[in-house]
Amino acid sequence: MKVTIDNQEIYVKEGITILDAAQEHNIYIPHLCSHLELSPYGGCRLCIIEVEGMKGYPTACTTKVEDKMVIRTHTKTLQQMRREILQLILSEHPSACLICDEQEECSSFQQTIRKVGATTGCRWCPKDGDCELQKVVDYLEIDKITFPVYYRQLPIENHEPFYDRDYNLCIYCARCVRICEEHRKSSVISLRQRGRFSTIGPAFNMSHIDAGCEFCGACVSVCPTGALSEKGRKWGGIPDSYNASICPLCDLNCDIQVLMKKGKVIGTLPPGDPHQSGGELCVKGRFCLTHIINSPDRLKEPEYLFDEGIGIVSWDEAVKQAGKMLKDVNGKRVAVYLSPNLTLEEILAAKLFFKDIINTSNITSSILNSNLISYISLSEESISLKEIEKSDCIISVFLNGNYNYAPLTLSIKQKAEKGTPYFQIGWIKDTTSRYAYQQIIPFPGREKTFFNKIAQSIENADNSSPEIKELVKKIKISSNPIFILGPDIMGLTEADGILKIIKKIITLTGSKIFLTNPYSNLIGLLSLIDTKSNEEINELISQKKIDLLYIIGDNPFQKRPPVNSIICQSPFPAPDYLNADLALPSAMWGEISGSFADIKGNIKKFKAVTNPPGKAIQNNEIFDRINKEIGKKDIKFTYKGISKLIPKKLEMRFPFVKRKPLKAKISPPNTSFPLLLIQEKNPHIFYNISLSNNIRDMREIVTEDAIIMNPTDALKMEIQNGDSIFVKSDIYEKIYPIIVRKIIPQNFLLLITSSRTFDFNPNPCPVHIRRNNV
Amino acid sequence: MEDLNIKIKEIFRNFSNDPGNLIPILQKVQKELGYISLPAIEEISCFLKLTESEIYGVASFYSQFRFNPRGRHSITVCLGTACHVRGGSILMEAFERDLEIKTGECTLDKRFDLDGVACLGCCALAPVVKIDNDIYGNMSVIKLKETLEPYE
Ligand code: SF4
Ligand code: SF4
Ligand code: SF4
Ligand code: FES
Ligand code: FES
Cα angle at A555 between A552 and A558, to 5 degrees? Predict the structure, then answer.
């Protein structure tokens, strides 16, 4: 249809707003609250316009175009009104710098006065130079504020992880509230109270953590002012460049853009306009990556274990030592551990190096245990993320979607909101729980029986619980049910049995499956190398059949195993207890180009954006140098040479596993051990480090080695956050600090650990607790 | 706690879990329990599948809802135009300071709760303070202590 804007005739689509129509034709109408990904709000009133035949001054962001409309956007009256409106906004915003005569000189000379606790003007604001409010003030040429100014004196909220909140700078555009509700479907914050007393935040004085914040950073991205700011990037200034990449922190490998300044990674964002994209990242892709790549703990120089202790050595020396160790040893007596975070190119190089040059087939990864193999074997039935869209019944099984798999949890929430029945089977309350048609907690300590009951109920009508009946009924009437499995299953003692039943349920009902997987390139690892299971290699080690361990970015041991020598090659130092003979610093994501494979065998590529720290070099270059030292075969390990060899189609091959019969006795809670302790291996692992361990803010939301307890239980037992308690099962006991959180239901305890094996057996385990001092 | 659960469950029996019922539910909760507490909001959140924050956002928009228990006596300070001009907000600050609470809150010993109001309808007496059903006109900060004394 045709409309006239400022005497210019333009043709526009039906149903769009006047603001969108104008923007499409590069006609600027000032606006602050409207946002690409959000429904029209009409809060700031800066976008007022005149429309012939319409009374008053409608807002362009909420008014739809109509055929033959005649619109004026820049009359004198409009501009004057906008100035008044903006001055009203500014009267409650620290605006001294905005209207200061010395602005220009100040920006160029006083660059170092910015790191202050409270923002009293633009020069002290993390958004300086990148702020939408500044831009509008510039455009409307505001040079004075006629209204009395007012500082809200709200306390600055900087005690929660990843981002700071200073609502003294807030202009109440409610973009943050709306992006959290409309786009992320989390509704963590809302506009509270009215008028002058309005504030933004969760209910009462709840923390964001307790209110279910995912720390996805969407609100921070879209905030037009400095009210919300990323802690890690607060004083980083405006990036020099934005580079496309993918996130290596789980196998969804989300698209991201990496923000660079002076050759350093200063932040990561979802793709798209940096101020407009709420995105679908989780906290890891949005906030953790920058911390990891810039971690002060990175291994920066080769280290060698001399008789006197560990010392830094040159690469030449390190390569000589590695060559010596590898030349002296019989290939059959070498075992290799590879991280599931290595790229396809690195894995292929490792394969050539260890299979062809060193001559060993003892290749594994610390995660390749029998439970993982049962789990990942189900991937034959697996669908891709996009296909969830087509499902008409979703069942998640032991999915802990907190701080994880954001695109997945988002699509579950979107589907459920539109009416697709969503069942959540498991203990943990996560960001999807609110959307669950039903959350079903399996009978404590009888998880396998529970799944058996479902299978039985599908085969023939029976007397199972009403919950199971309802679930089965809904699955049966659906034409495309999908089971989404979480990696927590792998930690259960009865994992193998439960997975077999799930497989049966899937076959019986013709369901599809989606496997979540916290490892960015597990699929690539299993497709490119014939691996052995962890159990098999461990047996070789304990039988003293291994002399040398070569560990690449992995962390398989909790103490030094009985071998002659250990070489660790990783972006991060090997743990001290390992007493590695040689530690070689390697480059990681961001510093290398490479590719990962997803569950369907599709390959996703990414490029290097920066250089590795210190003397760290790429894994492939390390192989190259050691190979030259041993000089057995002429193979080029460089990225270019290797990347040509990667097959177009990847197919997984699973290591052989011998299954031992279950020894642990599984029992439900009883009067002496009334609580059920669930142990979860921290899925937030990258190479040989845990994100919780390495990033303080991550530790606050995913705390390792602490017991998480329901508030009602805590109240009953008079236990408070931070108390220390004894946890006792029939064979083991240990002291832990307590964290009180709603994510776990009453009568359950949750323990997240980074160790490979669990302290309490079986898992889940009936326990009782008492306070440490009584 | 248990008590609250039972009462709230009883209230829910009269409503479907359509989020449109939020306001009527909040009104009923306030009527039955006197105020809207965080545990009550948590229960409503489970029932209507709204987040606590969404519920609190809506509830706090309306001045009819209170989020703190009532004290044995209720102090209402007029902040209407006439009273404002004659120092209503200064009175309010004085109350807040003396009782060590904020508007909308209740003292620890449950003796007083404190609220503001837009106009009490007796502007000639401004500034006006109401304690329970007694009106005190021409109030001043100096008279504060003695005015409160009779209320135990
Ligand atoms: S970080 Fe994400 S989940 Fe948390 S308040 Fe902001 S938008 Fe909502
Ligand atoms: S915090 Fe930012 S996004 Fe949220 S209302 Fe305030 S200015 Fe808008
Ligand atoms: S969901 Fe996975 S790939 Fe996406 S941002 Fe999070 S960790 Fe990275
Ligand atoms: S942009 Fe239209 S009212 Fe804010
Ligand atoms: S303004 Fe206080 S009684 Fe009317």
Answer: 140
